[in-house]
Amino acid sequence: MFKLVKEKKEKVRILGHRGAMGHAPENTLASFMMALEMGADIIELDVHLTRDNVPVVIHDEDVKRTTDGEGQVKDMNLSRIKKLDAGSWFSREFAGERIPTLSEVLAWAKGNVPINIEIKNGPNFYKGIEERVVEELAGHGMTGEVIISSFDHVCLKTIKEIEPALRTAILYSCRLCDPVYYAKYLNLSAFHPRWSYVTKKFIDDAHAAELAVNTWVANTPDLMKRLIDMGVDMIGTNYPDRLKKLLSSR
Ligand code: G3P
Ligand code: MG
After folding, report:
1. Structural domains in the chain plus CATH codes
2. Under 8 Å CB-to-CB from 153, ≥6 apart: which residues?
């Protein structure tokens, strides 16, 4: 099981946001492999559910922005999703990349790299997405190698009810009144706040309660430095190579 709260002497961990989305088409195996090559310690991906209940890795509920197709994931069976080209929109070099299933990514990641699975729920609410994700993780023996995050905190509560051993983290873009109290209520392992709401006091309070602070998305060295100096545990970035270079130089 990978550790979430880093030791004081350890370096900040690099969370590859949708893989290495600054360099490759987001949420594809090409992007995940590139993130790993660039030094990512953990990879973030987004999950939706197809019409035939398969968790697939894509950011939007609609395939239009990141494939050559059109339509909502919830209305498409896996066989149709798999025909889509998820690479050409980014660059011709990636033509033919497919939308991966969560299962395919887990098979690739197992023993290789931990995964942060972000469950996308809303505006389309997927009935049973929590059960399906938990099943996939159990099937791959990966329950201890992932952290599940979501902006839908109800979904995270359901995940813990189904599988208490899974680690969860709230995504949010605001300042919380009593974050540690809320974390205890949801039995969380970590906070995943947008970088703009992170303060040193919040990080210290979280760490005192053994909760990790993994923030997103920092792409410039100045912002990365600021977050490192405050003491965050992980930084999500579209450019794992930039963060790697910065950490190596410190
Ligand atoms: O990990 C945080 C980040 O992924 C949340 O935003 O929209 O990129 O999924 P989004
Ligand atoms: Mg995400």
Report:
1. 13-46+108-122+129-249 (3.20.20.190)
2. 170, 186
Note the pLDDT tens digit of each residue in 2-35. 789 988 889 999 999 999 999 999 999 999 999 9
Residue 41 has pLDDT above 80, yes or no: yes
The dihedral sign for the CA sequence 46, 221, 6, 195 = negative
* Cβ(216) – ligand 1 distance below 6 Å: yes
User: Which amino acid residue places its CA nearest to atom 1 of ligand 1?
Assistant: 216
Q: Is 118 in the pocket of ligand 1 (CB under 6 A)?
A: yes
Residue-wise pLDDT tens digits, 177-199: 999 999 999 999 999 999 999 99
Ligand 2 centroid to 117 CA: how many Å? Answer: 8
Short-list 171, 190, 182, CA closest to 122: 171
Q: Within 13 Å and on the Cβ side, how many CA atoms surround 40? A: 30
Name the residues annotated as catalytic.
Answer: 17, 59
Query: Ligand 1 pocket, 46 CB below 6 A?
Result: yes
Nearest CA to ligand 1 atom 2: 216
Peptide bond into 100 cis (omega under 30): no
User: What distance in Å separates the CA atoms of residue 230 and residue 218, rounded to the nearest whole number?
Assistant: 14
Q: How far is the CA of 192 from the centre of ligand 2 (A)?
A: 10
Residues in the chain: 250
* Residue 41 Cβ < 6 Å to ligand 1: no
Cβ(152)–Cβ(121) under 8 Å?
Answer: yes
Pairing mode, if any, of strands 55-57 and 42-49?
antiparallel
